[in-house]
Amino acid sequence: ACPHALGLAIPTVTSISTTMAAKRGVLVKNANALELSKELNTVVFDKTGTLTKGEFGVTDVIQLGDWNEKKILETAASVELNSEHIIAKG
Do 41 and 75 meet the contact criterion of CB atoms below 8 Å apart? Predict the structure, then answer.
């Protein structure tokens, strides 16, 4: 067993992982963040145009604590109510 092999294993896996992600349309800008992502159990995206299929709409509502789907949607609608954004005016 060569000790140098272990030193090559992690960069190789990272390289393959980022390449596979890119082929699926996912850009990984930070390999360290990718490695740390194994600890995540929730991800929230809030960047216009980053994640899109060209259609507007809610695809999923996931309950958080005591907040049920109705309360989540009502709260989201109330936040959007006075927005000047074109999508909010829909």
Answer: no
For residue 64, list its beta bridge partners: 67
Quick one: how far is CA 48 from the chain centroid?
12
pLDDT at 30: 87
The answer to whether 85 touches 56, Cβ cutoff 8 Å, is no
Residues classed as catalytic: 46
What ranges in the chain are assigned the alpha helix state H?
3-23, 31-36, 69-80, 86-89
Closest CA to 76 of 88, 64, 90: 88
- pLDDT at position 20 is 92
pTM of the complete model: 0.41
Average of pLDDT values for 48-72? 81
DSSP secondary structure code for residue 37 in this structure: G
Q: Tokens 């960047």 map to which residue?
A: 47
